Amino acid sequence: MTDATESTRESEGALRFHLSVQRSRLAVIGLMGMVALISNRTGLIRFDLLEGLPPFALAVGSVIVVSALYRAGARRGRMPPLHLAWMSLDILLVSWTIWVVRDQSPLWLIWYLTNVTAVAFVAGRRPALAAMWASCFAYLTTLVVLGKVRGFDSELALATGRLALLFGGTWFMLRGIADLREKRLRISELDAEKGARLADLRRLADELDQRTRDLAEANRRIQDANRAKSRFLANMSHELRTPLNSIIGFSEILTDKLGGRIEPRFERFLGNIVTSGRHLLGLINNILDLSKIEAGRMELQLEAASAADIVHGVASVMHGMAAQRDIRLEVEVSDQLPPIVADPPRVKQILYNLVSNAIKFSGPGQTVKMRARLLEARDSPLAERSLLFEVEDEGVGIRREDQELIFEEFRQVDGGSTRNMGGTGLGLALVKRFAEMHGGRVRVESEPGRGSCFRVHLPLDATRHTGRRRSGEPLSFGFTVAELHDAIGQGAAPRVLIAEDDDEFARALAADLAAAGYRVARARTGEEALALVRSEPPDAVALDLVLPGLDGWQVLQALKADAATREVPVIVVSLVANHELGFALGAADYFVKPLDRERFLARLAELVPSGDPATPAVLVVDDDPQIHDFLGHALEEAGYLPISALSGSEGVELAAARRPAVIVLDLLMEGMDGFQAAAELQRMPETRNIPILVFTSKEASEADRRRLSGAASGFLSKAPEDRRRLVGVVRDLAGRGKERRDATRVGG
């Protein structure tokens, strides 16, 4: 029980006691009045009111004396009016009663009893009782000394009876007065204690408010510092990635050019440089992604995509990693899943991280499963139609108390084992952040020793959760990278059609072809391949035999049976090893996967020359000299003349003077940046029709896309996978730029 509760109960008890005393007083007054009337009627006691004025006057004086004594004893200032009225009534009643009995010395007895009342107010119950007994004894002694009574006669009996009557009524009254006095003192003490406690509470409340304000201010400073850190890291992407990209790029060039011509250990050293550089770049990308999310600078580029293609694409990449560890990777996904409006690279990153984790923490002979299925609104925790992606493993499992920690940044539930497996504690944190940015959520079910199952719920349409428009809407570049590779238009370079349903293999082969100077088109099914070849025959076809719909044998047979497509060289690239049938049906050559890239390109060069011997110029505008060295080497090998500009303003001047076939433009430069340079190039008539390929480490936000809309013809990042595409994209843009300039001259 608290002190406040005890104080409240004390106050309630005092109030109840006070009321009981008042009721008792009224009862005693009524009883004494009845006794007086009966005595007067029977003649036992006779009285005259006029003769009682002196006792009443003495009683009034006694009231004044008692009030003064109360003020001094209780130390509470003036007596409350109600208490003064009750006390006055008590004293007047006692005085009147004593006078009525017509004692031998009534005034003297009144004074004695007045003193008893005063003692009750000042000293309490026991002193009042002692004073009453003393007053009674003094009264009887006075009667004996004065000779008013002699022995145990009738006078003594009458006096004793009178005293008994007075003692009973007066004692009850004085006891109440004494108890009331004691209660009032206790209440005063409690009030004082309550006041002290209230003062302590106010002081503690003030201290709590101050500490709350201090904590809020400290938290604000921490948040400001965290945002500043995130902004710093997000802004450092260019400075961190550019030198790393240069290291990786030059190492890849050395590996390609010196492979087999240097000692094996030096070749291994070069491979270590490339591998370590890619690992470090991946780590920096993760940190920067996380920092951009925290700083509010990460933007999703939403577009409609096939969920099945996303899952199969991730699986095709991760099969190699799983095979190295003797782990089976199984995929369970329906091709009938509806399209999802999301940021496909981020969704893939979610699945890459989950599958990579599952493989790392699984043992040889175990299985990792990838699943995707549609959930209706009633079954989805998102309360809307959503896709459920699941990654399940049979690995070490996660303890229940660690299942929330694994989604925190840089948290590893078992530092030793995690370090042995590899990892930084960022993968699952990014999974959670990317899912939440789409309006989704991530859950894990796991038991130690029995594996884990990660479930990612993503809405079918993330638009309303992010407030972003789809990237396919008008706010976009003139050409996307996919369009540049898939387009079937007239250009200077030969065009090769890849008929392949494996996205990752097709992407890798397209990069090799683009680097060799070919333009690339893509067909995912047999029917699509036939339609593309018949609508505009390519210079060559790279044909997989295992295709959805019409298989490769049927496609090859149909192409060779049609006079319009019979002369198109078809190179079979497949897992199926049946050279005799392939050559019998008219294949120009036959390669079995895994593909020998150099032999394939050499054979293709024999069948289809790789382009025009002319040497068009390509202007590279970048403030990093290493980028000029790297791109200059790649462009020279592809048959282009590289022109270097180390600033935006220099790039604009050289573009106007040299009229290059393509401009490769960085966005982040001091002075005139890439945005300003692109706007100036668009403004000038002599450079307006030159295609601009944005090549930068900066991730384009929607605001960046808006600024570049209509000015840039393509966009590539400085990441290794985009660098390998650059020459092919430049070649395609050069052809488009020539068409644009020719059309301008004809129209003029």
Written account of the structure:
There is one protein chain. By secondary structure, the protein is of the alpha/beta class. The protein has five domains: 3-202; 237-279; 303-461, Heat Shock Protein 90 (2-Layer Sandwich), CATH 3.30.565.10; 493-607, Response regulator (Rossmann fold); 617-747, 3-Layer(aba) Sandwich (Rossmann fold), CATH 3.40.50. The chain is 58% helix and 12% strand. It has 25 helices and 17 strands. The radius of gyration is 51 Å and the shape is elongated. The two termini are 98 Å apart. The model is unreliable at 415-420, 468-492 and 742-748 (pLDDT under 50).
Give the topology.
Blueprint: H1 3-42, H2 53-74, H3 81-100, H4 106-122, H5 125-145, H6 154-235, H7 237-258, H8 264-294, E1 303-305, H9 307-324, E2 328-333, E3 340-342, H10 344-360, E4 367-375, E5 386-392, H11 415-421, H12 427-437, E6 441-446, E7 452-459, H13 463-466, H14 481-486, E8 495-499, H15 503-515, E9 519-523, H16 526-535, E10 540-543, H17 552-561, E11 570-574, H18 579-584, E12 589-592, H19 597-607, E13 617-621, H20 625-637, E14 641-645, H21 648-658, E15 662-665, H22 674-683, E16 692-696, H23 702-708, E17 714-717, H24 720-723, H25 726-747
Parallel strand pairs: 2-4, 8-9, 8-10, 10-11, 11-12, 13-14, 13-15, 15-16, 16-17
Antiparallel strand pairs: 1-3, 4-5, 5-7, 6-7
Helix pairs in contact: 1-3, 1-6, 2-3, 2-4, 3-4, 3-6, 4-5, 4-6, 5-6, 6-8, 7-8, 8-12, 9-10, 10-12, 15-25, 16-17, 21-22
